[in-house]
Amino acid sequence: MNHAEQSIPLISVVIPAYNAESYIQSTLDSVFNQTYQNIEVIVVDDGSNDSTQSILNAYPHNVVVIKTENKGVSHARNTGIDAAKGGWIAFVDSDDIWLPTKLEEQIISIGECQWSHCDSVYIGENQSGDVKRSDYSHIPRGNVFEELIVENFITTSSVLIKKSLLNQYGKFDETLACLEDWKLWIDIAHENPIAYCDKSLLEYRVYSGSTSRKARSVMPIHIELIDQIFKALPSSTHYKKLKNKAKIKSLTICSYIAEEAQDYRFSLYCSYKAWTEAPLSKTTLRRLIASTINQLVDKPK
C-alpha cells in the first residue's frame, strides 16, 4: 500500500434497505455529499416490494446494488460487509442522514483505534432535530466495555470500523430479531478501545414503526441478552451491580418507549420491574409513580 492509500483509505458504505422508498434518496444524497471522497457505496436491497429498486436505478454508476431475499437487517449488513472492497466499513441505515463532514472528521480523529462513532441528533416523528444522543446519556470513548454492557450508546449509523475487526468477531448475529448491533459492539469493545467524535454528524430518524421503538418485543430479548452477557463474566460483586444497572436501564427505557406509544399498561409493567430491581432508588420510584398515574388516567378509546 502506498502513502496515498494509507492516508486516504477506501471506505465502503453499507446501506441495508427494505421498503425504503420514503427516505433512501435522502440517505444516498447525504453519502454522496461527503467531503471524504474515497468511498464505495453498497446498498443491499433486502427483498423490497416497493419502489426502492426504481430509486436505486437512478444511481447506476455510483452504487453497488445487491438484491437478496428478505432475511433481515443483519443478513443485509453482513452481505454488504462481505462484498466490500474497502479496508474500512461505515454503516448508515436507509432512513438516516449523514452531515457532509461525517466520514472526514471520523477518519481524522480515529487515531490508533480500529473503530469510531459520533454523536447524533434525532429527527422524525415528534422530533425537533435539536435533541442530541448525548443529551440522554454520557457517551464515553476508549475502553468502554463496562459502560456498554449497561447501556448501548453506539448508534450503528455512526460507526466507522475496520473490516478486519468485523470479520474477527463474526459480524452481526442473524438469529437475533433486534439488538444485534449491541451484541456485536460489546464483543468488539471487550478488547478494542473506540474513538469518539463528539460532534453531531448523524441525523437519526425515529418513528413509531421502527423495531427499536417496539417495547413489548424488544424488552424480553434485551433482558435475555443481558443474562447471556453477564453469564460469561466473572461472578463478582462488581459485575452483579453492573448487571442490576443494565436491567434497570433496559426496563426504564422500555417504559418510556411504551409510554410514547400510549401503551400505558406495558409502561407500568416495565417501570414496576425496574423498581423491584432497585426499590430504594428515587429514579425508579419516580418512573413507577408516573407510569401508574398514566395507567390510571388512560381512557379506553
Automatic annotation (TrEMBL):
Highest taxon of the lineage: Bacteria
Gene3D superfamilies: Spore Coat Polysaccharide Biosynthesis Protein SpsA, Chain A
Matching SUPFAM superfamilies: Nucleotide-diphospho-sugar transferases
Domain Glycosyltransferase 2-like intervals: 12-112
Record-given protein name: Glycosyltransferase 2-like domain-containing protein
Organism: Paraglaciecola agarilytica NO2
Lineage of producing organism: Bacteria, Pseudomonadati, Pseudomonadota, Gammaproteobacteria, Alteromonadales
